[in-house]
Amino acid sequence: MAQIEIVRADITTLDVDAVVNAANNRMRGGGGVDGAIHRAGGPEILEDCIKRFPDGLATGDAGWTTGGKMPSTWVIHAVGPNYSAGQTDRSLLASCYRRSLEVADELGVKSIAFPIISAGVYGWPVEDAAAAALETTSAQETDVEKIVFAAFSDDMVNVLRSEAEKLGLTVE
Ligand code: AR6
């Protein structure tokens, strides 16, 4: 089982093999963490998105591009469900984490950082978004050794710590 860490950080600054992006179906960038990743990594990420995902990506799925100028080698883009638009199927949210770790294993990634997918613009209730993130990643068989959750606020750090405690998970 991978070691789980919760940190307060801008995910684009983390020195990990892969950072996960909370993307959308079009896979051409956007706001929130998606905007931050495209800005930090530079235009190579969008070029790779256009080349590798001409038709975008389905909700719940994940796929990789270069990390461009970021410290991470890879970006793994996952498309979360848009709760605010009525996509409330939790299995789609869990699928983002499962698919991201599968892609990470294909790439030989040993350390990965996740944002809390769907918990921003897409409006998923934050406690449940954090619980889904922790539950799904901690239950998965993977060769990834370190999973970092990058919280963008102190509130999110506290939510993640409290949900981890409810799940009986050891986190750093
Ligand atoms: N580092 C870490 N976490 C961040 C960062 C950052 N630099 N920036 C934001 N967050 P969101 P979603 C947190 O809205 O809800 C985009 O337009 C944020 O506080 O980025 O899945 C896409 O293109 C929140 O906790 O993603 C899609 O259209 C979490 O990351 C749509 O938004 C996710 O918030 C996806 O919405």
UniProtKB/TrEMBL annotation:
SUPFAM superfamilies: Macro domain-like (SSF52949)
UniProt xrefs under Gene3D superfamilies: Leucine Aminopeptidase, subunit E, domain 1
Domain Macro: 1-168
Source organism, top-level taxon: Bacteria
Identification of the protein by name: O-acetyl-ADP-ribose deacetylase
